[in-house]
Amino acid sequence: MSDCRFEEHCEAQLCPMDEGLANYVWYPEEDICRNAEFGNLRWINRQRALRKNKKNQEIGFFNVKMLEILGRVTHKTKGIDTRLENQTKAIEEWLHRRHNKMSARVQNAVFSGVA
Length: 115
Known about the structure:
The chain has 115 residues and is mainly alpha-helical. The protein has helices at residues 42-52, 64-69, 87-111, and strands at 25-26, 62-63.
């Protein structure tokens, strides 16, 4: 992290200024980037929404790609279970399920005349 005013005291696992950002995961109890310059990034907004969701504390972890594709956050929103042996496969399956949900919503909107 360079040229960030929070650099010395930042505990965020996902930093928009980190070149290796795609390789890290985030748990909802962890810190979120406080730099206002990045406050409008979709994945940071999703982190905030997940943090507000107090109903389910055991929701697993998310990476940036997962946070980017995540739609509305509800008490049913879940990430990846840390107990799974093949977490890479679990992430791929999670992304595939979300992509299918998004495609279905768009298709339904088109057929109902909403789009």
